[in-house]
Design goal:
- The protein has helices spanning 2-13, 35-39, 42-50, 55-61, 65-73, 76-79, 83-96, 107-118, 123-131, 161-165, 170-180, 187-203, 224-237, 243-264, 300-305, 321-330, 346-359, 378-399, 405-423, and strands at residues 18-20, 133-137, 154-155, 157-159, 208-213, 268-272, 274-275, 289-290, 311-315, 334-337, 365-366.
- Helix 11 packs across helix 12 and helix 16 runs parallel beside helix 17.
- The chain is α/β, with parallel strands linked by helices.
- The structure holds zinc ion.
Length: 426
């Protein structure tokens, strides 16, 4: 019974169109050009490295897609158990109609075939349609001109890591000057420049502000006098400034961003818990890891102070999910958002999503986002999520709690689709 029920629920979830609320898509170049773009995704390079290829072998091969693909295929025998490998298989079958597995005997022929399919003028439209996507959120640098693309399909989102954590680099300040038209010389002009960025993003259809945060970060308000001294030190000494001044500036800018989110009515997506560069010899984007010592208690001042700002929260690992469920259960402004990175595998998604569905108000759960860099990944990632969601709804709601299928489907559609639209204000 459960399998048929799950299939029926999946079909219903699969029948609707939705928005992907967090991606790294380049709106000016959204799809892959060849298989090298698809297999160049860090999940494949880091897994192949983990399974035995050297970083050097991968980086050398990455110069040319026709070298990268066969070298990664060598390791597929060690990776075909992983969910990331299954995403690739589903891209081949779901988007290209290729059912056979890629191996050393057929890769060139498949590379050529897919390259010509990827070159079709309507390829991107085909991918949107097959993936049931209406629109995707972008991750825009603060100095992105936001020009040259349809902002109804590619929704701007102001990414702010550089402002909070890299203001000590001279290039960040000059980019900020350039983007805002302000000359940042002190705390007041820094405030003004940040406000200008919000005006620019808001005027161009931005629906959110976002940032990823290291495990040790603890937001709090910095008094103006202290902030002035710290900003002056950073502007004068850059990354040579005292670490206490650098930390104070990070907190100050972060708090300012939250104030702007309040003023400009933008949700502030917080992606909490990433330690950058843990594995120093790792491949590109394969160096960062979570740190279980992070706690949402570090965010209590923020959540208490900004009652009118919506904070969709992503946690890097499942170990932090129970805190997120509890915070979202208590704080009206804390929302659960997707299954990020190391928690984005079926075992953790099932556990984490089920915990949210049984304890957090249903209007506060943004079910899933792809976090993809190329459009081809929406289909397999969302299909993975929809299958898990159908399983949870079947087992925990229809069977265990005797919900009707109709009611279970309505809950599934709400977390998959409706909530991202209501939270981000469509
Ligand atoms: Zn991301």
């Amino acid at each position: 019974m459960s399998n048929e029920l799950r299939s029926r629920l999946f079909e219903e979830l699969d029948s609707i169109q939705f928005v992907d609320p967090h991606t790294h898509i380049n709106a000016l170049d959204p799809t892959s050009s060849h298989l090298g773009d698809i297999l160049g995704y860090h999940y494949y390079t880091e897994l192949a490295h983990s399974a035995g290829l050297t970083t050097q072998q991968i980086e050398d091969a990455a110069e040319s897609p026709r070298e990268l693909v066969p070298i990664l295929i060598e390791k597929f025998g060690c990776l075909d158990n992983t969910i990331q490998y299954s995403w690739f298989s589903e891209i081949l079958s779901g988007l290209f109609g290729i059912e056979e597995a890629l191996d050393s005997s057929n890769w060139e022929q498949i590379f050529n075939q897919t390259e010509s399919q990827l070159g079709a003028p309507d390829w991107c439209d085909q991918v949107f349609e097959k993936s049931h996507l209406k629109a995707v959120f972008l991750t825009n640098d603060f100095d992105d001109p936001l020009a040259g693309f349809d902002t109804d399909r590619y929704i701007p989102c102001l990414r702010t890591d550089d402002l909070v954590f890299h203001l000590g680099k001279p290039e960040t300040v000059s980019r900020l000057n350039q983007a805002s038209g302000e000359e940042v010389t002190n705390r007041q002009t820094l405030d003004k420049a940040i406000e200008k960025l919000f005006e620019h993003f808001k005027a161009n259809g931005a629906r959110a502000c976002a940032i990823s945060l290291p495990p040790g970060f603890q937001p709090e308000s910095i008094v103006p006098g202290r902030a002035e001294k710290a900003v002056d030190a950073i502007l004068k000494k850059g990354i040579q400034a005292d670490t206490a001044d650098q930390a104070a500036v990070s907190k100050y800018v972060f708090w300012k961003l939250a104030q702007c989110c309040d003023e400009f009515k933008l949700p502030f997506d917080l992606m909490i818990g990433v330690n950058r560069g843990v594995y120093t010899d790792g491949v590109y984007q394969g160096q960062d890891l979570y740190d279980s010592r992070v706690s949402l208690i570090q965010y209590r001042h923020l959540f208490n102070h900004f009652a009118d700002v919506k904070f969709p929260i992503s946690v890097l690992a499942s170990v932090t999910n129970q805190e997120l469920v509890s915070y979202s259960w208590i704080f009206p402004n804390v929302l659960t958002n997707g299954h990020w990175w190391y928690s984005n595998t079926p075992t953790y998604i099932e556990h984490d999503a089920a915990a949210r569905l049984e304890a957090v108000p249903r209007n506060k759960q943004i079910g899933y986002y792809s976090d993809m860099y190329k459009m081809e990944f929406a289909l397999p990632k969302f299909n993975m999520y929809k299958r898990i969601l159908a399983k949870i709804l079947a087992e925990k709601f229809v069977i265990d709690r005797r919900w009707t299928e109709t009611d279970a489907i309505a809950l599934g559609k709400q977390v998959l689709s409706d909530n991202s639209e209501s939270v981000f204000g469509f």
